[in-house]
Amino acid sequence: MSSERSQDEPRVVTASREIEAPAEVIFELIADPRRQPGWDGNDNLAEVVHGERIHAVGDVFSMRLTNGKVRDNHVVTFEEGRRVAWRPASEGQDPAGHEWGWEVEPLEEGRSRVTHVYDWSELTDESRLARARGTTAEHLRASLDRLSEVARG
């Protein structure tokens, strides 16, 4: 496929599932970069390099990937206990135009609906387009499934 943007090419991928754990437990796993490698369904995250638990838009945390590269993640959405999203960037650079997001909705009896969103609608970095196109709902579901396992203990 050409790297030119197709008008009908979907650039937002989502996956949702119910998890048998309270929303606050799930959100804590997502908002703490130190915990992210434990539930990353793509086995892409090795360790946190810099950054604490996310508390606000504007926070930045850095992750070492399994390939050794470091990504600075700029938080662009934050609602405590409910929503968080960040835009990754190569170390020391501006974000590349894609975004990873999470929404956690409390349900009855200590369960939650979790939605994972990958939005690459503003991605222009040619070197990242193939990987972005390859990120499917199944990839997002893999993280949701692992998150469920970790949240349930």
Automatic annotation (TrEMBL):
Highest taxon of the lineage: Bacteria
Annotated CDD domains: SRPBCC_7
SUPFAM superfamilies: Bet v1-like
Classification via InterPro entries: Polyketide_cyclase/dehydratase, START-like_dom_sf
Name of the protein in its database record: Polyketide cyclase
Organism expressing this protein natively: Serinicoccus hydrothermalis
Taxon lineage: Bacteria, Bacillati, Actinomycetota, Actinomycetes, Micrococcales
